[in-house]
Amino acid sequence: EFGVGKTTLAQLVYNDVSVEGFFDLKAWVSVSEEFDVVRVTKTILQSVSFEFCDLNDLNLLQVKLSQLLKRKRFLIVLDDIWNEKYEDLMILFSPFQGGYTGSKVIVTTRSQTVASMVGTVPAYHLNEMSFASCLSLLTQHALGRTNFDDHPNLKVVGEEIVKRCKGLPLALST
């Protein structure tokens, strides 16, 4: 589902203070429709090494990344994976095998197929927000308040906007 808050939830976890001290290394990669295992691997490698990498050979990139992740506890977020090809995903995940217990890879996806292929725990499905929560979010963004008490003339318009957004926080924020 588009716009239910998958990326926002992953960002909250990734940036949480208690997460900061738990992991030795962290990386965030926006994957999206254009799935390129070389680009994604290179981005992870640069994020955990804090160095620019001009390699474009997948094998060399994966060996280098695998060495950096070995005996480390890491958190890697792969945001918005669309690619449902099992082989591509397994190639992407292969350098993660040597991490310490407690290492985590968080994947956000709209695809139940992707979630099933890469998941080692059940997927966490986000649902649309309730009408009341949406109305509160809209008033927070539009008026800096949690309700229309100070602007009752805008409430009907706000309720119509909330209906059209169908419980999607991204639509409401926009």
Automatic annotation (TrEMBL):
InterPro entries: Apaf_helical, NB-ARC, P-loop_NTPase. Residues 3-141 form the NB-ARC domain. GO terms for biological process: defense response. GO terms for molecular function: ADP binding. SUPFAM superfamilies: P-loop containing nucleoside triphosphate hydrolases. Gene3D superfamilies: Helical domain of apoptotic protease-activating factors (1.10.8.430), P-loop containing nucleotide triphosphate hydrolases (3.40.50.300). Keywords: Plant defense. The keyword Oxidoreductase does not apply. It comes from the Eukaryota. PANTHER family: DISEASE RESISTANCE RPP13-LIKE PROTEIN 1, PLANT BROAD-SPECTRUM MILDEW RESISTANCE PROTEIN RPW8. This is NBS/LRR resistance protein-like protein.
